[in-house]
Design goal:
There is one protein chain. By secondary structure, the chain is an alpha+beta fold.
């Protein structure tokens, strides 16, 4: 036990205390520190900062857009993912640009190492290795934390990013043990205190697949999956990328695998009821897949290296909590895995979370001032979802203690805004994962324009430099110049029609402007460069991203204008503010369910109120009349 005088010597009062050093905690600490706050990052293990507990990969469908948004605003996730990538792929490239999603396979060890080094190089961040057992509360405001050793550390705000550690239980078949991650103990005390303070808590479940010795696999029986030849990146900065890429592979389960897995169902914690929490619907365990999709003869398995200098393999698509002997027997019946050696079995983990309707759009809790939640504690799944919440919570914790304006991301300006609005307004009863389909304005929220959308916001906060803003403004101007050039520069039939025939599109019947030809879906800028020397000379002056931005503008200009009109109409509802302390019981015309939900959520705007489940259009009409008065 530390004496009081030692506590004063060891710890000053911090502006922001971040509890937990996963993806949410790391981004929260970095954001608050880069804004000028003094930050203490508390973790139970300094060796596992930013640990990739599950798949060593970043991005993917909709998630890649989130990583780019974090980077556009000065966060670290994109830079660190780029530095440690072993393979890059742009997913959904055959679809429209709203669906393009960058993804990297990463070196697990190097990713965590780069995060720690980045945090250590960030001024204003201190570290402390210990478990936080409770919060210090005074007059319904958090004023610090208390650790397992009894150390009290004062802080003007606290961000909880506890991941899967709150009363975590690991399940493997009929065996269970306390833990927040394999080999690491769970965190206790906080849930019980928060419930006592009036918070509602629940249980969720997630899982991870077994890890395999790559030297024991027969890759000749699998399909190769290489990264893109033209390497992309997450970060808008000029971070140096690795020069090489590693191959991944694809194989498939079969009837024998499925029958073997079924042998263990009677010992599965999922099917026997020992796991109470709901698991992620869109990332189910292998036993859940063959149970829910019994008609399928096989399921895809992605064989993914864990890094540059390790033989460890991540078996993506084989998440399981079945007994280890059943896992192993089933694995050896997958093509290429006949002689597989297992490093460690897959497992499920059950943990506490707090329904996010208890938060405001800043991620501050409604019950306790200056207390923020971010990441899996809010019921989300995924590194990217966690990192984005941590980033926003860190910003708003800084803003709150410095009496600065809060940052609330809009649904129409970012995937991050969609994520937080969904959580706070609608809540979630199963692990929430981001998808492009959740964003109604996804055509405007593309991965290619995250810097255009969000860097000016980050610059106004002080998170990005004048130089970065200048680069964005230059990108906007240059892409607009390219578009303007295509509207002025013509192309003759004699120059274009041989190309039109080659591309399988109808020939020109008259001389037209380049813009008209490029508006055709079959025709790309790279095609027109071959037949228009003036256009080719112009494009040689610009970077690839600028040219890509111009091409997207040309092809989708009419769609963008239409979408922007919809956003403008909806913005009228978003601009109609509602006092969060308004007593809805005074509006007797509201339905009973609407009153209950509105009092619980306390929407900030009429737009947010309209998205609450149980609030009908007629209820919104009542609110509109009240606001008009």
């Amino acid at each position: 036990m530390f004496h009081v005088k030692h506590r004063k010597y060891m710890f000053k009062e911090y502006d922001v205390i971040v509890v937990g050093a996963g993806h949410a905690g790391c981004e929260a600490a970095a954001a608050a520190a880069n804004l000028g706050s003094s930050v203490l990052l508390i973790t139970m293990n300094m060796e596992t900062i930013a640990q990739m507990s599950c798949n060593p990969a970043m991005g993917g469908v909709a998630k890649g857009q989130i990583v780019r948004e974090i980077d556009a605003m000065g966060g670290y996730s994109g830079i660190i993912a780029d530095k440690t990538t072993i393979q890059f792929r742009m997913l959904n490239k055959s679809k429209g640009p709203a669906m393009w999603s960058p993804r990297t396979q990463n070196d697990r060890k190097r990713f965590a190492e780069e995060w720690r080094l980045s945090l250590e190089r960030t001024p204003n961040i201190d570290f402390w290795q210990e478990m936080v057992s409770s919060l210090l509360i005074k007059n319904n405001t958090v004023v610090g934390v208390k650790t397992n050793l009894g150390v009290e550390i004062k802080g003007k705000s606290v961000v909880l990013t506890n991941g899967t550690f709150l009363n975590g239980i690991i399940h493997i078949g009929e065996k269970k043990m306390g833990g927040g991650r394999t080999g690491e103990k769970s965190a206790t005390g906080l849930t019980e205190q928060l419930v006592e303070l009036g918070f509602e808590a629940g249980r969720m479940k997630t899982g991870t697949p077994p890890r395999i010795d790559g030297r024991s696999l027969n890759y000749s029986l699998m399909e190769e999956q290489w990264g893109d030849e033209e390497r992309g990146r997450f970060s808008y900065t000029n971070v140096e990328l690795p020069t090489d890429q590693r191959c991944c592979w694809i194989t498939y389960t079969n009837d024998k695998v499925h029958e073997t897995l079924k042998e263990g169902f009677e010992k599965s914690p999922m099917f026997t009821g020992r796991i109470k929490g709901l698991g992620p619907r869109y990332c189910p365990s292998i036993e859940d897949k063959i149970n829910r999709f019994a008609e399928r003869e096989r399921h895809q398995i992605f064989v993914e290296p864990e890094g540059w200098n390790t033989c460890e393999i991540y078996v993506n698509g084989f998440s399981t909590s079945l007994p280890e002997d059943v896992q192993y027997k089933a694995l050896t019946q997958i093509p290429g895995f006949e002689n597989a050696k297992m490093f460690r079995p897959g497992y499920a983990i059950e943990y506490d979370y707090f329904p996010p309707t208890q938060l405001s759009l800043t991620l501050e809790t409604k019950l306790i001032s200056n207390l923020f939640f971010a990441g899996q504690i809010n019921g989300t799944t995924g590194y990217e979802e966690a990192a984005s919440q941590g980033f926003i919570a860190g910003i708003n914790a800084h803003q709150k203690v410095n009496d600065q304006h809060e940052l609330i991301m809009k649904r129409s300006e970012s995937y991050i805004g969609v994520l937080i609005d969904d959580l706070v307004t609608k809540g979630t009863e199963e692990p929430y994962r981001m998808f492009t389909s959740r964003a109604e304005h996804r055509l405007l929220l593309r991965q290619d324009n995250a810097d255009i959308r969000l860097t000016p916001i980050a610059h106004s906060l002080g998170l990005v430099s004048d130089e970065r803003l200048e680069i964005v403004n230059k990108k906007i101007k240059n892409s607009d110049d390219i578009v303007a050039f295509t509207k002025k520069q013509g192309i003759e039939m004699s120059e274009a029609n041989a190309l039109m025939e080659e591309l399988g599109t109808s020939p020109l019947t008259q001389n037209v402007k380049l813009f008209s030809v490029l508006s055709r879906p079959q025709v790309n800028i790279s095609d027109i460069r071959k037949v228009s020397e003036p256009f080719n000379e112009l494009l040689n002056k610009f970077e690839i991203e600028t040219v890509e931005q111009a091409e997207i503008k040309i092809k989708y200009e009419a769609y963008f204008e239409k979408e922007q009109e919809i956003v403008s109409k909806m913005q009228k509802m978003e601009d109609k503010a509602i006092n969060p302390d308004f007593d809805y019981n005074t509006l007797v015309s509201l339905s009973k369910e609407a009153r209950e939900k509105l009092l619980k959520i306390k929407p900030r705007t009429l737009g947010q109120a309209s998205r609450i489940s149980g609030v009908s259009p007629s209820d919104i009409s009542v609110l509109m009349v009240h606001i008009a008065k």
